[in-house]
Amino acid sequence: MRSALFAISFWVVSVMCAVAQVQGVELDTPEPIPEFLLSSADGQVFSHDDLKGSWSIIMFGFNSCPDVCPFTLGNLEHAISETALRVRPESLPKVVFVSVDPDRDAAGVDEYAKYFHPKFRGVSGARDQIDRLIEATDSFYRLMPPDSTGYYEVQHSSAVSVVDPEGNLRAKLQPPFDAGLTAEFLARLQIAYRKEKS
Question: What is the pTM of this model?
Fold first, then answer.
């Protein structure tokens, strides 16, 4: 698995260098994220309470995604590294990868996310809890009908959601995004938030 992920990561970096930009959209009115409950394989819970007190970036996908997920997670790793140069350590967004395919991914989603950065989290859970978070972030996914072997594909949106320290959806980022420009976008978002609260 690691060799395959390394090959994908090399491809991700190559593509990012060629076409990366920033496509960040700040919501006119922040939308509150409702209560939800997800977890990783080791039982560590991820809930609405984990969004309080810090910035978060939520991404949806699935472990066996051939392109969008590894591309975006690699993209986020670079963006978070750049953001660390612009904001205080306590203001660095936490990245959470939510698998929309719990039947196949629940046992390995946290390991998958941590391959891209040791502080990334990977979680999944009951379908209704995933759907609640999907709806709250205006995201999308669809499990396609299985073939004769039982294999099925998954379609999902690629945009990631930026959540503020009060648990409100504050912005969306559409990959591919340039790490430096995205870091600047996130830093400006935090400055605007602090001014709003002062």
Answer: 0.88
